Each structure stands twice: as C-alpha cells, then as structure tokens.
Amino acid sequence: MVVLPKKALRPRTVGRLSIYRRVLNQLLENGSVHIFSRDLATLAGVSASQVRQDLMNVPACGTPQHGYSAIELLLSVNRCLGTTTRASTVLLGAGHLGQAILAHFQATQPDLEMKAVFEVDPALVGQRLHNITILPLTDLEYQLRLIKAKVAILAVPSNVAQILAEQLVNAGICSILNFTPIRLQLPQHVYVEDNDIQTSLERVAYYATAPMNQGVNA
Amino acid sequence: MVVLPKKALRPRTVGRLSIYRRVLNQLLENGSVHIFSRDLATLAGVSASQVRQDLMNVPACGTPQHGYSAIELLLSVNRCLGTTTRASTVLLGAGHLGQAILAHFQATQPDLEMKAVFEVDPALVGQRLHNITILPLTDLEYQLRLIKAKVAILAVPSNVAQILAEQLVNAGICSILNFTPIRLQLPQHVYVEDNDIQTSLERVAYYATAPMNQGVNA
DNA sequence: TAGATTGTTAATCGATTAACAATC
DNA sequence: TAGATTGTTAATCGATTAACAATC
Question: So what's the architecture of A11-81 in CATH?
Fold first, then answer.
C-alpha cells in the first residue's frame, strides 16, 4: 500500500465511497468487526475488484485473514471524503422537493451545514422550516456572501434555473446540486451534479416496455 | 442512414434522448424550425459528436444545409422512446419526496400513468393526493396485480426498501425507480434506477472542498 | 459550385474487471 | 504450512470524441 500525494477523486469513486461508508456504519451497528472486500461488494452492489480498486484511494489496509477492520476502514473513508469542515450550504426552492431535501439533511447529517432557504413564493417567505427561516430571493447574492455559502441546492422552477445559477456563481458558490431539468451553462470550475427526476422517470418508463434482454442494468 | 433491427438503447442514451426531447419542445415553442447538431448539443450540455452518435439510434435525417427539422426530429425521438403506451405505475411512500414526485407527474406527463399511491402511515392512508387515493401497504401484491402495474417508484424508509422491492417483483413489476439509499438485490431482469439524494449531497460536499483542478465535471 | 454539416467509422479515453504475486 | 485474500498491474469493456467521405 503506497500513499500517493492527495489527488481529487472521480465523481463515481466518491459516490461508491459514500455507499461503503453507509454499509460500514450499518455493519458496525450490527456488531461486525471485520469485513472482506467480497462481502462489502455484495452489500454495496458492486464487484469485489471495484471495492479494492476504490480502496486504493482511501487508502485501506486489510489482511488476507480478516479482510478489513470495519471501524478502521470507516475512519479511513471518512478522512478521505473529508468530514472535517462542514461546507456552508443554501437551498433554493421550498416546495415539496425542497422540503424533502431538508428532511434528508435532518436524517443523514451530511458534510454540509444548511444555512438558509430561499423562495419566491411570498406566502412561504418568513415561515420557518426545520428551524430555518425562509428568505426572499430578492437579495440573494448579498445573503450568500454574508454566510460565505459554498454549496447550493437548486430546487426551483425550470424557467429561473439558469439565471439563479449565475447569481450563485457570482456570489462564490462552487458546487451545485441541480434538481431542475435544465442543463446549466456555467464556468468549468463549478462542480454541477444533475439529479434530474424527470429523466429518471422517462428512463424507467423506457425499460418497462423496451427490449431489456442483454443485462443492460444500471 | 441505415435502419437497423430495433435494439434496446443504453441507459445513458435514453437519458440524453429525453433531454433532446425537452430541448426540442422548447425550441418549437420559441418558433424554431430547424436545428444543427452543434446547437442542440450546446443546449443539451453535450458534444456535437455525441448528439449525432445518439441520433443514429433514432434514426434522424438531417441535411447539411438546415440540419434537422425540429418537429420531425421530435416525432422521431418520441417514436424511439415509445410514447405509445403509458406504463401502469405505482408510488410507494407519500412523504415529502413522494409528493414532490407526484407533482412532477402533474407537470411533465411522462410515459407513465400513476395508478396508485401506497403508504404505511395510517394518518395518510385514505386521503387523496393529486386525485389519487392513498392505499395501505397491507395488500400491496394483490393491488399491484389488479392494476397490472409495471413500474414502481420507491420513496420509503431504508429499512423496508428491500422487502418491499421483493414484493414488487413478485407482483410483476419490471422497472423500479429507487429513491432509497439501499442497493436493492433483485433478479437481473428487473431494471433498477438509483436516484440517491444522500449520495448526491455527499458528492457536492466533496467537490466544495476537494482539489477540483482537472475539469472533473460530471 | 464552394462550403459547411451530416452519418458513420476509427481512435481515444476512462472505467470496470481479471489476474496474480505478495502476504498473513 | 496451506489457502484464501489483499494490493496492484494488466486486460477488457464501454462510452465519448475525432475524423472524414458523402451530401445538399
């Protein structure tokens, strides 16, 4: 096991490490002490090769006899994904989807800290949601700078997605989780993750009827 | 342009065709008649090569002078993705996320027809949501067979995800949109699309702080 | 016609899987 | 020790990009 100079992980690797982390937490709750790559693979829905390949980035340290120490591996993955500082986060859009996302925050406590919720609908502005006051979108950029927001979650109507995204970037946001079906046109340095429910729906519709013979599974 | 015997499209291709479809609809609303692969590419956030590669599956028929006819291309994509029959769909879980998904249905009318909503919480059972009565999870399999459900959307707590998924498959479901963070263990013939908000959150968190130098964009 | 674009094939790139020496 | 597993490199697979003849 060789420790390389730290390098950015690929998005898919980060996704799988995040899954391994959850599996490990679950295992520890159930009293497991050690785990083999094969078993971790099964629980995470990937191949054993993939697990070992991913763990090269962590880095992990297993033995042929017991595999990996569950607790050590978990700590190592945490260190790799960087739980040290919780990035300052804002949510745009307090509709059903926005509220569902806030509920996720409550339950899972990711490496993010929700600092503010913004909303156009005047009926919602001023209300409190999970202990966070809903702010108007009018002085968005000022507020973002004030709280030094780094991450934004975009759960607003399509027609305002691009213009709001540009304001976000202007105000220093560097990572966006985009729930709108619009493909945002932004500078390269901004990380954008699209979570497009509309496309997801159309894909399950397609495979409900289409010839799905040759194990085309996701 | 050669018409090949129809073959299942790959998930990513389906996703992009779904995006092209939306872009084309928008263009037609704005009065565009023709479109070049390069412009479609820009609007969809992909390369022109990618667009032409995808359109080989449709198939499309463009000219060097005007590119593609927007309306013909749209119809062709629709035919390819198969809008003919709307697959019978059910939603499991009527929490915030479930309600947000139902709202998407209202707005976008995908190639799915929502037939029933199931929920454990007795307080919600019996209520109506977007004109659909919320049913209890007790006689799930019977109800699914009754309405010949083909697609299921899973928006339930993690701890019941696997057991419910198995019931779904038993009752003839062949395509699942999985919003839980659990990786479902199901037979190969079932298409499962994971839309894991928790992982999405952890990924944007990672790229908010991590070295994100070499255009690692999604 | 001249020139830009299409449809398609070839090349590249990245991600996953297989293989295997080292190891406990 | 014998045997199964790790860490790592090589091979494969699939997806994206580049190239270019055909074309309008």
Answer: Orthogonal Bundle (1.10)
